[in-house]
Amino acid sequence: MAQDFRTRTEDEVYGVRATALIIKDDQIFLCHDEKGKYYTVGGAIEVGETTEEAVHREALEEVGIDVRIDHLAFVVENQFCQDGVNYHNIEFHYFVTPLEEPSPNILDSDDKRSCRWVTLDELEQLQIVPHFLKTELVNWDGHTKHIVIMEKEN
Question: How far apart are the first and last CA of the chain?
Answer without folding.
Answer: 33
